[in-house]
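The methods section describes the discrete structure representation at length, but only in general terms. The central task, working out the structure tokens from the amino acid sequence alone, is never made concrete. Nothing conveys this as quickly as seeing an actual entry. For illustration, here is how one protein appears when written out as sequence plus structure tokens:
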Amino acid sequence: MDLETVPAAAFGRGLRGLGLNLLVRDVGRSVAFMTAVFGMTAHRASRDFAILRYGGQLFQLHADAAFATHPLAALLPEAGPRGTGVELRLYDSDPDDACARAGAAGGQVLKPPADRPHGLREAVILDPDGYAWVPSRPLTP
């Protein structure tokens, strides 16, 4: 599927497994953050929408205005963080590299990289909308 030209209906019919769609205040800002910090690839990025690829996974960003008629729109905070209680885990991202790039991309390192007892080196980074991203890599046994 050519993500740059696929019609919306064909794209939707082609989605499988677990889907992730983040509602963001500024799609361009979010795309810039995710590509700079995590090396994601953006497709069809516009003011209202973007498709992002992380490894073999696809997910979507929608601007708040694009969801004006959706029931979630009334629940979105005017200011402050979003997604409290949800961790977006990226198992193929080096946490040290991601944290080094986060500040310049508008993010905030909430928890610096550390080796964890569950076999991963990980960190927690808040993006400009307040979503918590957890870049991690396996520790060497």
Remarks:
- The CA atoms of residues 24 and 63 lie 5 Å apart.
- The beta strands are 21-24, 41-43, 49-54, 57-63, 87-90, 108-115, 120-126, 132-138.
- The domain at 8-138 is CATH 3.10.180.10 (2,3-Dihydroxybiphenyl 1,2-Dioxygenase; domain 1).
